[in-house]
## 1
Amino acid sequence: MKRIWILLTVVLLSQAGFSQSLERSVISSVGGSWTNGSTFAMDYTVGEVMVSTLNSANNFLTQGFQQPFSTMVVSVPEESSEQALIYPNPVVSDFQIQLVSPDQGDYQVMVYDMLGQLVSSSTTRLAEQSAGIITTDVSSFSTGNYFVRVVYNQQLVFSGKIIKIQQ
């Protein structure tokens, strides 16, 4: 019995030198480090939950997990007073917008990417006896989703979505 206690004591004492230490670590898909070169360094990760935030007139401190830089919401209004049809969708090179009851005049077609940035803007003049079809070329666009807005006399007449594919 005495032998077992001695063996157990030796094993426990030998393991004491190899104990675990807690190291700060984070599992995240995006992040990095920033330094001003000499006096300040900051590590950051994107998308973690916050515990609490304290602020004063000149200072801002988030305690707990690290925070993303900003929250961004992208939207393109989709209210329109006129019905239209976009085809083909998905699109390879160009698409048509067929307006149901178009007026004579200039129609502006604006295409936005998923970040809400304007990537294309064109103006098409529809004649009095026009079929109301507007063609827009997107062959140079990257594959992805886009928002389309049609404006007539500074009024939104149609908005919709297209999917650009490669073939």
## 2
Amino acid sequence: MRQLSLDTIEQLYRDRGSQQYGNEAVSQLEHALQCATLAQERGASNATITACLLHDIGHILHDLGDDIAERGVDDRHEYRAMPYLKSLFGPEVTEPIRLHVNAKRYLCAIDEGYWSSLSPASQLSLKLQGGIFSESDARIFIQQPFASEAVELRCCDDLAKIANKTTPPIATFLTISHHSQLA
């Protein structure tokens, strides 16, 4: 893939964003837009809104298929896009993206009800991604820079799976993302 820009991100979502988001009731693009919308509604920073928009872009950068988790494979999407995103954004955007899978593992460790609140597809992917953190792993995780932003992203991520929910168009969030880009 060539280097990413905001224009190529928009094109990528246009070309591949209609793919189903795992076994959820939304497409990849709908999930991204819902996640960014939730972050914006919660008053998150431009960097966090951008991270919410782009957190799962690694899912559409590969050709492994939509049913990869059902085949027992972790696509490691949180790392797949890093080489591209780091050329556009600083750690305030890329680190929450990189950490958002571990934020799910963390939340399961600290909140007894969190696991049961996850969709079946998210529970399956969690197993493939290493499972629930131990208490000590959870303590280490949350002390990392940008871990709290990753948890904020994760909370939006978990709620961004509502079929036919109205959101602003991608152009709205790409404008916000422009303000988060490296100078």
## 3
Amino acid sequence: MTDASFGGALAIGRADFLAGAALIGGEWVDGEQSIPVVNPATGGILGHVASLGPSHAGAAVTAAAAALPAWRARTAQERGRILRAWFDAINDHQRDLSRILTAEQGKPMREAEGEIAYAAAYVEWFAEEARRAYGEIIPGHAANKRLLVARQPVGVVAAITPWNFPAAMVTRKLAPALAAGCTVILKPSEFTPFTALALARLAREAGVPDGVINVVTGPPEAIGAVLTNDPRVRKLSFTGSTRVGKLLAARCMETVKRLSLELGGNAPFIVFDDADLDKAVEGAVASKFRNSGQTCVCANRLLVQSGVYEAFAERLAARAGALTLGNGLAGACDQGPLINEQALAKVERHVEDARARGARLLTGGTRAEGPGHFFQPTVLTEVSPDALLCREETFGPVAGLVRFHTEREAVTLANNSAAGLAAYLFTRDASRVWRVNEALDYGMVGINTGVLSTELAPFGGIKESGFGREGSRHGLDEYLDMKFLCIDVEPLAA
């Protein structure tokens, strides 16, 4: 890939961020074939990345394995200093990275800038956590025994990241892995590879040694087969669909790898009669329409109690109808496009299914005219709990409202899903906060807020939304193995 292939006329970021197509052992590698990267706001081709196969993926594993002994031998303080330099580099180039992200993913510049800051925050956090991989001393079971627990890096890590947060999902995996002393092979989405390549280039400039971070681009099936089958890869961290996560987990069991899986969601957003309606509406807009509804924790089912149902629906429809669509590189807007034609078709299918089951359309409901993969912000009322909107993850800007009458009914509706990632509830009743929160089968719960992600807290789900946690001190543990030491100590000499 050349600098010009990214589209010099767009003047997106630093062109030298994008020199080379993949990073293996410190070398930028081109492939014999390439994959086009499309701007979803215009349909135009931004550039191409290499379509690598099994041999390149194997070479990346070899490079990571070769770099592991020296990297894990560095002190935690040294690794932390390099991560801190990476954090500074990301912040220094926030505008460049934001433009790259917006170009290939489509989100508004304001959101892209927020994501780059969020991505950098994970690097800063784990730069500090690197020195806190503490062990334990356990009182012995015999007078001559000393018992200790040490924590050591798990080894070579494979990280597979999605297209909806192409910066934050990279640093949320790579920063703790590097802090723990692991080396990484990163497989970014073929839809949004440029952001990952730019971050990797900045990491090298910050002092990350050759082979510690490797980035392979290309068809996920061929590369994934190598990463899951190679016994030198000791851990896989994946963010993506539940279907793919199950397939990867099954393959990883052939070599019994450590796993972290952050899979699909189907978040209930519960509004009780006593809620602050203005706050609930703003929370719903933030949760449902951020990134055009393409987030794993976004509100997927809006459960609203009958006493405030009509008022909430009216206010939400007014707010959704006022959101502006646009190309983030062309000017200010509230919402960008969906990632591709398949995403548009899925959203259309969900809207049609809901209306066929009796749902009433308040606003939106169709594609937007013009180029790009835009869908109008949509609000539907009287949605059946059996509708696709409630049973599947929509991943689009469609808010479907379901009416409920009692607290118990709300909890039953909310838990009626195999997913268990995030949930939200709005109420002014402190006792209800505890009752409902404890009854919800979800790994994360936002209470009177529509935004809950932060590097300070553990991010992850239960049930078919996966296992493992990212962020917080628990995120470092995902890349550390425990080693128990039992030491026989001779008695003090006379």
